[in-house]
């Protein structure tokens, strides 16, 4: 099997290509003789990039074609931003590797202002994430939040053309694209709690493919996996869909796991936040228990209202 090539199914956005190249390089660092090939694909999500996500069926659209390629043995792995990976996987596929996390914070990006707090009254902020929107609106009810979609480059272009006074993006994406000089301020988790899995890259493959799984094993980062497991368990218990006002962020401190989460009304009028501290082995149980607390304290109603508003008329 010396000549076997490991094939990575990838979308063609700059961020997706960076992630695929990153996994390729890390694989070859551990296995110098391994041949790795990128298999670029167009997903339905890419075709419909300008349509609001909620209307076209959500994040799953970006991964379905990649998963089909793995199931039909046209590719061996797919590399995902953990924050974009749906809760469930098709039969036979699963997430087997989570790589070390990059900076998980949100970034404040502006050509005229140095920080979120220094924005003037009524300034226009671009984001299509309900999670970012609800937290910014809660902190600064005077700001006008406007929709902003597209790849990172497209979003920066819309900022530069003057449509917005500032936009919010992930620090990790900007760093990966060597655009970190655009960051004016990295927002602390207390200001903008990140999305589940933000900053982490995960690898999906056929679960019965032991050749690939053994090659991937050294890329796995246990600390990141524990943190993301807690965050995802929280989100799964909330039944968090694709477009949700949910933040969740876990840290390991002195061997203890600290999980924070929030659910907010999109207009920022209400934020329900909570936390858990416990043993890393309890990551999943902590996520579930925190989600249940938030649901009981009002998150259930908020999420119900958000999903009602999403339904096609
Ligand atoms: N939703 C798009 C997306 N998916 C992952 C990242 C950034 C990298 C990451 O969080 O791993 C981004 C861009 C952004 O939110 O600014």
From TrEMBL:
Keywords: Porphyrin biosynthesis, Transferase
Pathway assigned in UniProt: Porphyrin-containing compound metabolism; protoporphyrin-IX biosynthesis; coproporphyrinogen-III from 5-aminolevulinate: step 2/4
GO BP terms, alphabetized: protoporphyrinogen IX biosynthetic process
Modified residues (S-(dipyrrolylmethanemethyl)cysteine): 242
GO molecular function term, any single one: hydroxymethylbilane synthase activity
Cofactor(s) the record lists: dipyrromethane
Catalytic activities: 4 porphobilinogen + H2O = hydroxymethylbilane + 4 NH4(+)
Enzyme Commission number: 2.5.1.61
Cofactor note: Binds 1 dipyrromethane group covalently.
Residue ranges of every copy of the Porphobilinogen deaminase N-terminal domain listed in the record: 6-213
CC terms in the record's Gene Ontology section: cytoplasm
Alphabetical list of Pfam families matching this protein: Porphobil_deam, Porphobil_deamC
InterPro entries, per database record: HemC, Porphobilin_deaminase_cofac_BS, Porphobilin_deaminase_N, Porphobilinogen_deaminase_C, Porphobilinogen_deaminase_C_sf
CDD domains listed in its UniProt record: PBP2_EcHMBS_like
Domain Porphobilinogen deaminase C-terminal, first and last residues per copy: 226-295
Function comment: Tetrapolymerization of the monopyrrole PBG into the hydroxymethylbilane pre-uroporphyrinogen in several discrete steps.
PANTHER family per the UniProt record, alphabetical: PORPHOBILINOGEN DEAMINASE (PTHR11557)
Quaternary structure (record): Monomer.
Note: The porphobilinogen subunits are added to the dipyrromethane group.
Name the UniProt record assigns to this protein: Porphobilinogen deaminase
Organism encoding this protein: Mangrovibacter plantisponsor
Gene name as annotated: hemC
């Amino acid at each position: 099997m010396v000549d076997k090539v490991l094939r990575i199914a990838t979308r063609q956005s700059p961020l997706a290509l960076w992630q695929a190249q990153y996994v390729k390089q890390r694989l070859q660092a551990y296995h110098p003789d391994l041949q790795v090939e990128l298999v670029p694909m167009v997903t339905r999500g890419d075709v419909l990039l300008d349509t609001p996500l909620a209307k076209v069926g959500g994040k799953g659209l970006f991964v379905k074609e990649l998963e089909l390629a793995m199931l039909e043995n046209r590719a061996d792995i797919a590399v995902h931003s953990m924050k974009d990976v749906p809760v469930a996987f098709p039969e036979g596929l699963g997430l087997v590797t989570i790589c070390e996390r990059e900076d998980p914070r949100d970034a404040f990006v502006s050509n005229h202002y140095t920080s979120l707090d220094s924005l003037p009254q009524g300034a226009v902020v671009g984001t299509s994430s309900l999670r970012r929107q609800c937290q910014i609106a809660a902190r600064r009810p005077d700001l006008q939040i406007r929709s902003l979609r597209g790849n990172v480059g497209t979003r920066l272009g819309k900022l530069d053309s003057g449509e917005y006074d500032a936009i919010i993006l992930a620090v990790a994406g900007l760093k990966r694209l060597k655009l970190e000089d655009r960051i004016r301020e990295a927002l602390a988790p207390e200001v903008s709690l990140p999305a589940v899995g933000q900053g982490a890259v995960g690898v999906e493959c056929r679960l019965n493919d032991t050749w690939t799984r053994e090659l991937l094993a050294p890329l796995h980062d246990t600390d990141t996996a524990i943190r993301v497991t807690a965050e995802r368990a929280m989100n799964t218990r909330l039944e968090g869909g694709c477009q949700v006002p949910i933040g969740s962020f876990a840290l390991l401190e002195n061997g203890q796991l600290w999980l924070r989460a929030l659910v907010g009304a999109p207009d920022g009028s209400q934020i329900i936040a909570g936390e858990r501290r416990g043993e890393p082995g309890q990551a999943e149980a902590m996520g579930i228990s925190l989600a249940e607390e938030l649901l009981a304290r009002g998150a259930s109603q908020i999420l119900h209202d958000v999903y009602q508003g999403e339904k096609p008329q």
